[in-house]
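pls read this stuff:
=====
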Amino acid sequence: MDLSLQLQRPPSYKVVLNHTNGCFKIKPFLGSRQFTPSRSELRTSSLSRRVTASAADFSKERPRISSNPSSKGPVPEDFISETQGETNMHKRKPKINGEKEDSGMPTLTESVKPNNIEVESKVGLETESSTQKRKPKINGDKEGLSMPMLIESVVPNNIAIESKVALEEESITEFYHKNKVDEGQNEEAKEDLPSVGKELDADVSNLNVVNGSIRLDVAISNLDVANGGAGNLNVVNGSMGNPNVVNGVSNLNVVNGMNNLNVVNGSISKILEDVAGLEKKEITSENGATSGNGASIPRDFFFEGKHIDGTKAYDNGAAVKIERGETNEERVEDNSLQLEMEANLRRQEIEGLAEENLLNGDKLFVYPQIIKPDEEVEVFFNRSFSPLKYEPDVLIKGSFNHWRWRSFTERLNKSHLKGDWWSCVIHVPKEAYKMDFVFFNGQKIYDNNDETDFCIPVEGGMDEFAFEDFLVQEKQREQEKLAKEKAEKERQEEEKRRIEAEKRRIKAEKAASEVDRAQAKTETERRREILQQLIKNSARSIDNIWFIEPNEFKGTDKVKIHYNKSSGPLAYANELWIHGGHNNWNDGLTISEKLVKSEENEGGDWWYAEVVIPGRALLLDWVFADGPPKTATIYDNNNRQDFHAIVPKGIPEELYWDEEEQQIVRKLQKERKLREEAIRAKAEKAAQMKADMKERTLKRFFLSQKNVVYTEPLDVQAGRTATVFYNPANTVLNGKPEVWFRCSFNRWTHSMGPLPPQRMLPADNGSHVKATVKVPMDAYMMDFVFSEREDGGIFDNKDRMDYHLPVFGGIVKEPPLHIVHIAVEMAPIAKVGGLGDVVTSLSRAVQDLNHNVDIIFPKYDCLNLNHVTDLHHQRSFSWGGTEIKVWFGKVEGLSVYFLEPLNGFFSKGCVYGCGNDAQRFGFFCHAALEFLQQGGFNPDIIHCHDWSSAPVIWLLKDHYMHYGLTKSRVVFTIHNLEFGAHFISKAMAYADKATTVSCTYSKEVAGNPAVSPHLHKFHGILNGIDLDIWDPYNDKFIPISYNSENVVEGKRAAKEALQQRLGLKKSDVPLVGIITRLTHQKGIHLIKHAISRTLERDGQVVLLGSAPDPRIQNDFVNLANQLRSSQADRACLCLTYDEPLSHLIYAGADFILVPSIFEPCGLTQLTAMRYGSIPVVRKTGGLYDTVFDVDNDKARAEAQGLEPNGFNFDGADCGGVDYALNRAIAAWYDGRDWFNSLCKRVMEQDWSWNRPALDYIELYHAAKKY
């Protein structure tokens, strides 16, 4: 049987082997280099060993058992002293009297590893081997001849000798051969050893081992071990005659044979005397287990083994294992005993910790006391010291790394420990550097360490910075995974769409082909009837006019067509030509030949032409002329009936008409496909133009603050540094001696938190200062503000909106917002005014920016359901004593939830004007919030509009945000201050953010009592126009489509169509358009003056609009009649609403006049620029914010990233109108090229919802901070 012994932290030994006759075979262990340990003073060391034995496989080892350092004291009888020394890397070679250095000797091979030195050797009975067996004589030996040979091989960090005797730091092995030498006389043999792998054999009669160990594969007659013990002694497949052991043996394994065993003052005799006693005995000391005579043995010094009779032996320290053989069942029993010992020691340590913490009044400890990553830790909690002391259940809730990694919740169990200790086991992830946790009862009672939470550091793993890097890498991997999943999902969806589109295309193609065939059949029947009638009335010749020879012919034949020149109007023509075709000119002109004079002219002036008959002709058609096609002036066309002749041997008529029908089908299909391709190309171009405009707008949005802030590089890149340039001269920090930069990322939510304030340094470009910041890889937005001091003071935070710049190339994308609009108007299903347009257009624009948008809307009985798709009943709920049905549908691609209360509030046939509108809409506001709460919605933003949905705001703040809608913030938009002042005032007080429809208008109404107390949260954001409705490139109401590339051509055609439709003179003069409601707000007195002024400048005027006030309407009717009588060809007033005509006016006019007294936003001027018409406006509200005078507003336009785009004026008198209108008309007359370029410029400016949507998203994020 093979047996091995491994020591994890081995001691050093001195070994004396006395041996008798025998044969050694010492097989060296492979290593990388060799050394011989030298003698040194040895020191006491801790010992941890593992011993395994197997009859089948020498290499198998048992689990290791560790130990603690042993205490000092006398050595007990049953243990030998174990020491260790420092490793010496010098080679030694034992010297033997009279022996040559190259003689063959037994070898000992060692392999060294830090804190783990294993020594192995094999000694056995063998036959002659390749290594010569020698038995050298040593002069003076008394007891016989023994010849040790030490071969040592060093592998870095590993020393091994096959008998598994481990030596720590420095191992000294000494071989003494005593043959008739006086007692005490020893000769040290030193030898430089040969290379690894050499095997030597020797006969051994007596073997002495001093302070060491060796594994023997021999038959031994006598064995003496004296003075310190044999350390580890293994005898396998041999017998021991009379072994004598003095002063202890640490481990003795004998397999297959032992005659007598004597142990004096050692452990073996004790073990053999009482096996059972050793198995149960545990004596502890301060540092570990203590032997029977008081010597201190390390607590964790374990060894398991079997006595010669097969029983096990251990005594908390060195032990003896003597085996004849071990079964699998015995190995399992060995392991269970080892685990039992470990559990006992662990229990003792935990009990000690529990007692210590109980005495100190501490409620918490963990075991092991040093937490390491990727291991388990048991948490002990003393309930009696906690607010949970009367609670039957105790749970732990926690996470790692400041609550940022791997959360857990576990139930604690009552432990056996003294005191009210509860415990559970938590696995510590490998990424942890800190464990954070609290205790609770599973409900609402917590022990959170006086609101500071419990935390324990994790040692030996990541630090906080490494964890941050790990998180970034994790996010990157997650993003890559999500990107792949998204790409795959998109690919699958695209493939699905492609398949569906292909199915639709095939279906549509089939339907279109059916239409084509039906149309071809109809056309064929029509042509057949006409041709048959012509064939019926035709002849083969007409006497004295024409004839054909030969008389019988077929298609492809050459014939002569004879014509009597004197019979008709060509009698005096210098030339005669025949222009012909076939089958009622079905293929157009296919015959053109010059006639020549016939030699036979009997009975007239005959001429003829040789003509090839078309192959598919049933009937020939022709006329005679005085010249070739396109130059002839005189024709003989048989009195406008043309000449026709039957083809006598033409193709079968049925075959012809079948072929004709197929030919018509092919022609129709080709024409249809050309139309479809043109439509598709136009749609693609329109989409590309919209995308390009959107990209320009986004860039302009972030450049709009360049006069205050910009960066280098302009596009901030993740993982790189960016320099921020700031111009305090244009801000509240103007003149401050210092400017401090305060920055973070991802809307101030980045895990790094706000960066330390940074003092900005002067830049090279004038008044700017600068600061540089490193952008993390997981950033998608850079956020910053400026202050006058490091500790704060005055801040420039962009009116509480903060500065934000997008970060490109990061591994994290900005999470979408969830916005819910609650409104009572929505275009096109229930539009009354501009509010309905805003709700739909703004929602679409925000949704196009990848945010989630829903709309909650009343289900009026007057809804225009033609614009609702997929409308279906979703569910019902009750509130306010009535059942409310919830319907879901899509409007313009938006998700809309329609609320239909069964109390009839919205079954009135109208939106407003029911007498109880406040009650109706108040109920709707309550129901909308109830729907959100009961449906589990918790949107980021609830956006309310005007007084009709204002109650939502205070109902949310007073009630619903405490019962489910906890994270929702409210934005309130004022569209019209004229209605519901009380509701608007209360909504302003409760709202997180409030807006109106332009920046200038927000300043104009700042003094309003409903607004003035809340200016800190009141912002102006422009409305936009719908590019799909107002699009000259896809407008069915104008004569030709155009964009900025062909604006001159498009507007010229539109002007001509407009002049023709309204009866104006078709002339190239400046045309002024006015599209408005005729109210005092719109400046009707200025409109009248502008009409007369334009006519004075020889321009034309078109007005479209009506007045809700009958007096104003009648006034304009009279003006229209006057103009009709005096200026009918230059002025036209259409006093009604006509949407198609409004499109034509926007396209055909050169200027659009908007002289409003006040105008919150205004869409007319924006639509005008969309069609390339130049706005002429009064400086008020949104008109001032959107129209920049070409002469006076260049700097103001540049600040917005724009170029001047129109003409404006101050005041509300005729002089102001003249100032702007005169300059506009003069520009048209004096510089047409410049004017045309201005038209192109305004068309390329984006006045859609692209920019307002970005402003609203910034506002939504600002509202979330409250």
Observations:
- The chain has a mean pLDDT of 79.
